[in-house]
Write a structure and sequence with these properties.
Blueprint (H helix, E strand, L loop, with lengths): L6 H10 L4 H7 L6 H4 L26 E3 L4 E3 L16 E3 L2 E3 L25 E4 L17 H6 L4 E4 L2 E5 L3 E3 L3 E5 L3 E5 L6 E3 L4 E5 L2 E3 L9 E3 L6 E5 L2 E3 L4 E5 L3 E5 L2 E3 L4 E7 L3 E5 L2 E3 L12 E5 L6 E3 L2 E3 L2 E2 L6 E3 L10 E3 L2 E2 L10 E2 L8 E3 L7 E3 L7 E4 L42
Parallel strand pairs: 5-6, 6-9, 7-10, 8-11, 9-12, 10-13, 11-14, 12-15, 13-16, 14-17, 15-18, 16-19, 17-20, 18-21, 19-22, 20-23, 21-24, 22-25, 23-27, 25-28, 26-29, 27-30, 28-31
Antiparallel strand pairs: 1-2, 3-4, 32-33
């Protein structure tokens, strides 16, 4: 026989147990977090703003369901990296970000300067020992000359030394990118790389080294046309001739290292030629007895279109002119540079050892030695390092305003109360 207990009986039982009706009702509510895990539980509200699968994520900016957290996100690494593309192709955690490494671009192995991944069909691949004629990723070509002639918008260097037996001439727009350890050289004397005509060439992260022609530059922009050449993060190192000779067009050097080139560092001249040299180390170029150029030789007509700021120009030598910077640009000011211990005919104390010409150097340091600069490792044996260390007199001294917000390594400027002068911004003991 089935018994039916009246409602007041339940109340009597609850009262005897020391519980109120409200306590009993609350005890039947879902525990905190239970509805998020299972919205179908009894007592859960009908409204649920999370997700249980990516089908429920309709926001174009958050199309993937992070199931454990029941939230819609941009992506999930490593499972949903394909959700990222365009200007932010890399999934980091649950967010799409710009690429910073070539290896993050799986299809092309090319991370572009804007943080997007290149289309592999737009890339000519160059690798030491390569022999392909089409310069594809699976069959790369073996010289930069072949890479340029493949007529792609981008040329990508793999790590290793690539050398040709002739000058590579570029007369069309191209962007050249390189893996860490990629080097461009030449197997016999002569200019390694020449930029001509009204072209626009950008080169990132490559080392140009080993040129054996004492009368030749590693990189040349000869007279004729108005070419543009941007060098970013590259090294021009250990060439018997001059590092760069630009006699036309526009030369931009940013976050580079130009060192140990026997013929000198950089020469810029010409009526219409312009330069923009920033955040770069220029050291140990030239020769006291033979070279006609030390660190920089700047001889252009107009001051307004040019810039020389936040550079470290040290230990360069020349037999004539100035060991550090020879500057014949009318009414030109070059702020926030370190110009130190450069030599003219063997002397660092001569009138033109550090600078010559009428150019001025506001809030810069031009001195015959490196005392007080506290460079990391400025003396033999190599490798040399002209980064700042604690206590340097260059720290917080860049009081002339210049719109440059990073240093040679990409560290933010300033780290202290003011920006530091020279190519390196001292960063928290590093």
């Amino acid at each position: 026989m089935q018994r039916h207990w009246p409602g007041n009986f339940v109340l009597i039982v609850l009262a005897l147990a020391g519980c109120s009706w409200a306590d009993w009702i609350l005890d039947k509510q879902p525990k905190p977090g239970a509805c998020e895990a299972d919205p179908t539980l009894s007592g859960c509200p009908d409204a649920f703003t999370g997700c249980r699968s990516s089908v429920e994520c309709t926001d174009p900016g958050a199309k993937v369901c992070d199931v454990p957290n029941l939230t819609c996100v941009q992506c999930l690494a490593p499972d949903q990296v394909s959700a990222c593309s365009g200007p932010t192709p890399v999934c980091v955690g649950t967010a799409c970000q710009r690429c910073t490494l070539h290896t993050q671009c799986v299809a092309s192995n090319v991370c572009l300067p804007d943080g997007s991944c290149a289309d592999p069909l737009l890339v000519a691949y160059v690798q030491a020992g390569g022999s392909g004629s089409a310069c594809t990723q699976s069959a790369p070509c073996g010289t930069l000359d072949d890479g340029v002639k493949a007529n792609k918008l981008i040329v990508k260097f793999a790590a290793g030394l690539v050398a040709d037996n002739k000058t590579t001439t570029i007369d069309r727009a191209v962007t050249i990118l390189a893996d860490s350890g990629a080097k461009l050289s030449r197997s016999n004397p002569g200019v390694i790389l020449e930029i001509r005509n009204d072209t626009d060439v950008k080169i990132y992260d490559l080392e140009v080294t080993g040129g054996t022609g004492s009368a030749d530059s590693a990189i040349s922009i000869p007279n004729g046309g108005s070419p543009k050449l941007l060098l970013s993060g590259i090294r021009i190192d250990n060439n018997q001739g001059t590092g760069i000779i630009a006699s036309a067009g526009s030369l931009s050097i940013a976050r580079c290292t130009i060192s140990r080139n026997t013929g000198g560092g950089v020469s810029v001249s010409g009526a219409g030629t312009t330069f923009d040299i920033t955040n770069s180390f220029v050291f140990r170029n030239g020769d006291n007895s033979a070279s006609l150029l030390g660190g920089l030789d700047l001889r252009v007509v107009a001051a307004a279109a040019n810039r020389l700021a936040f550079n470290t120009i040290v230990d360069n030598e020349t037999s004539i002119g100035a060991g550090g910077v020879s500057c014949a640009v009318p009414a030109f000011a070059a702020p926030n540079n370190i110009i130190a211990r450069n030599a003219l005919a063997g002397s660092t104390t001569g009138t033109s050892a550090q600078t010559s010409g009428a150019c001025t150097y506001p809030t810069s340091k031009a001195q015959a030695d490196v005392a007080g600069l506290a460079f990391e490792h400025p003396d033999v044996p190599a490798p040399f390092s002209y980064r700042l260390t604690a206590g340097s007199t260059a720290i917080d001294q860049a009081t002339t305003p210049v719109t440059i917000d990073v240093d040679n390594e990409g560290d933010a400027r300033p780290q202290g109360s003011q920006k530091d002068i020279g190519a390196d911004e001292y960063r928290n003991g590093q």
